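Obj.: predict assembly geometry.
Materials: sequence records (below).
Method: joint structure prediction, all chains together.
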Amino acid sequence: MQSNVSLARRAYAIRRFALRMGEVQGQGYIGQALGVADVLAVSYFHAMAYRADDPTWEGRDRFYLSIGHYAIALYAALIEAGILPEDEIGTYGMDDSRMPMSGMAAYTPGMEITGGSLGHGLGIAVGAALGLKRKKNPAFVYNMLSDGELGEGSTWEAVMSAVQWKLDNLIAIVDFNDQQADGKTTAALAQMPEVGRWSAFGWFAQEVDGNDLDAVVAAFDAARHHDVAQPRVIICKSKMCKGVPFLEDREITHFVRVEPDEWTKALSILDEGKPT
Amino acid sequence: MNGQYLSRRQSKETPRTAPKGERLATSAMIASLDAEGRKTIAAPFGHALVDLAKDRDDIVGLTADLSKYTDLHVFAKAYPDRFYQMGMAEAVMISAAAGLAREGFTPFATTYAVFAARRAYDFIIMAIAEENLPVKIVCALPGLTTGYGPSHQATEDLAIMRGMPNLTIIDPCDATEIDQATRVIADHPGPVYMRLLRGQVPDVLSEYDYKFELGQAKLLRDGRDVLFVSSGLMTMRVLDAAKALQKDGVDCGVLHVPTIKPLDTATIIAEASKGGRLVVTAENHSVVGGLGEAVAATLMRAGVFVPFRQIGLPDAFLDAGALLTLHDQYGISVKALTASVKGWL
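Observations (raw structure tokens):
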């Protein structure tokens, strides 16, 4: 049982919006969206400062999504946060939509950077964190990246740079679901030690169950309040398709196949578990 | 244009002997390539940036371990707290420049042209250009300005960068132009890639009452027989060649095109349309994908059919060695290009 009912409701809502978008296109990175919904709920409804009616408010915490194909999940969070309107769900991935399949800053309020070319987000976050410090702006920069992006050399350039500049206003969130396009992330490039290598580089590193809201909240709190001048990373072990058991049990792939009649079934199963 | 068949890389098994008498060493100093006795100015980019930064708090400098070799060390010394040494890591340097630009700063990021164009391309196009951020990427060792070989010779950087939407590309001629262009690009709201001559940089354009304007080609001299259309250091070369050819009764005009993108097609078309002249493009770059092909395509699209020749580097991995030798070998020295033009007339 989750002890934090209000966050559980937010995570449920994010999952539901994501499923409805997936239904619109008949496809989508729904496995990732369901898996990361709890982390997004904590980000947007516990950790971050922002103004729904002013997505570029100077005092906001920046949220950089470098995993472009996770856009479906972030759109869902932005809808729940009131930054995007719920009635645009039907446009997801359509011509002229503000919610394209891969996230781009130029298209969507609240989408801070253009993701999709993996391994870019953390480096951009380094520059933004430097810029915020120059302006004496106390906001945090969050970068959500995937375990697959840890294979990109540029990510590790950014890892070193963040330590060099003592970026205590930078929080990396690694969604570790061990899935990339061709299969298991851990079967493609060495990922061990998952936490130890970040601390070896000089980061304040934590690993949590990314679907345990209380644990995620505690990790975010520890990352924000950590009093050493070093960047912070939270490695969130998440389960693809979390919250919809029949999809969780499906052969796990990067791109989960959902049959046309299964969207309604998935929504009703999700609704059965709606937090009260 | 000499081809790959001349390359020294074809004869690895042949023993060599040390030269007797005068030796030409490998040098990366551009002044060593220029006409003897020409006036030079030290580090025009670095000094212009320092001057600009006096009134502009938004200007910051980043480098990937090449501040001394891009003249950014002048800025670093004047404004140490606005200088970011990013280490030998071009991806994060470019990405961080994008992040700083997102937060309202105007970053000048420096490295060598080979490393920006080749290694950092994906970060420049997606983190900077796709969002039209005002990052200025300023790169030393353009074209054939080092004898180190292909690892350092950016013979195809313009070909690579021209395909990038939103990007403004500058290939300045000399110290005067570098000083002026640095100030102009700082005010440009989008991303810029500028080739840089560093160290003691020849000053040529000051005697032409020159003013750099973004996107503008400038006719530096008129002539009846030949129209040179040139950029970068090749403008120095064709100005010298024009003087030499004048003595042989060949009257040459020089249209200097420092902005490679967006190209000043109107001026190029207007000048090339004045009939009776051989149009000769001259660039410190491969004949593939640079100024020459851009001018050719411009004229074809406009229906301007004129005799046309290209002076530029061959589509090849160039040799290592002394620059003076290499510039002769590849046809971009004053002597070599003058001979080429005479042969074409």
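Conclusions so far: The mean pLDDT of chain B is 94.
To do: check interface contacts against the pulldown list.
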